[in-house]
Design goal:
This protein has strands at 2-3, 12-15, 18-28, 36-43, 49-55, 59-62, 65-76, 79-84, 90-94, 109-115, 120-125, 129-137, 150-155, 160-164, 172-176, 181-185. The strands form three sheets. It has a six-stranded antiparallel sheet with strand order 1-6-2-3-4-5, with no helix packed on it. The chain contains no helices and 16 strands. The chain folds into three domains: 2-62, Roll (SH3 type barrels), CATH 2.30.30.30; 65-125, OB fold (Dihydrolipoamide Acetyltransferase, E2P), CATH 2.40.50.140; 129-185, Nucleic acid-binding proteins (OB fold (Dihydrolipoamide Acetyltransferase, E2P)), CATH 2.40.50. By secondary structure, it is mainly β. It is flat and about 60 Å long. Helices cover 0% and strands 55% of the residues.
Length: 187
């Protein structure tokens, strides 16, 4: 068994009959009382984020996960179909295991997180940034760029993203998949 001294960002642990990944942690040594570890944990099964405090030296159960590269093929009803590129093995993942399903394009590379002991799919992760073409947005008004105003834009996957006023239809933009925000125009 591991202890709280082994905690690090990205570590996967079994906690409350679920699998969580450590988003952040902080060792706290107050002037009075015992030391403790404050953590932010994200569930790999339902995406919920919770904060928990462990006493220093508390035993935790580490679970082994594997990240495998796959390619998104197509959507079939409520399921997404992926293919492993080396073996050409196809896998079907339900919508509930996928974050930002409207940011997926055919042929896109993703990482599928699989629990090693049971060989079950926990989640599908997009790369941190994706580049997509703007298929529809209202034209920007010239001279209306003094403020950080944004407007809605629809990208080629069908997702709606807030973009600055100078972005036009046909532009390629870089999107942060973690918070669905506009980053910059892409070449």
């Amino acid at each position: 068994m591991a202890t709280t001294a082994d905690l690090k960002n990205g570590l996967c642990i079994n906690f409350n009959h679920d699998i969580y990944t450590v988003v952040s942690f902080q060792h706290v040594k107050p002037g009075k009382g015992p030391a403790f570890v404050r953590t932010r944990l994200k569930s790999l099964t339902n995406g919920r984020v919770l904060e928990n405090t462990f006493s220093s030296g508390h035993e935790i159960e580490i679970t082994k996960i594997i990240r495998r590269p796959y390619q998104f093929l197509y959507k079939e009803g409520e399921d997404f179909v992926f293919m492993q590129q080396e073996t050409f093995e196809q896998i079907t993942v339900p919508l509930s295991h996928i974050e930002n399903p409207d940011l997926y394009l055919d042929g896109q590379e993703v990482d599928i997180v699989i629990q090693e002991e049971t060989d079950t799919v926990l989640t599908v992760e997009l790369p941190p940034f994706v580049v997509m073409e703007v298929t529809y947005t209202e034209p920007g008004v010239k001279g209306n760029t003094a403020t950080n105003a944004t407007k809605p834009a629809t990208v080629e996957s069908g997702a709606e993203i807030r973009v600055p006023l100078f972005v036009n239809q046909g532009d390629r933009i870089k999107i942060d998949t973690r918070d669905r925000s506009y980053v910059e125009r892409a070449n």
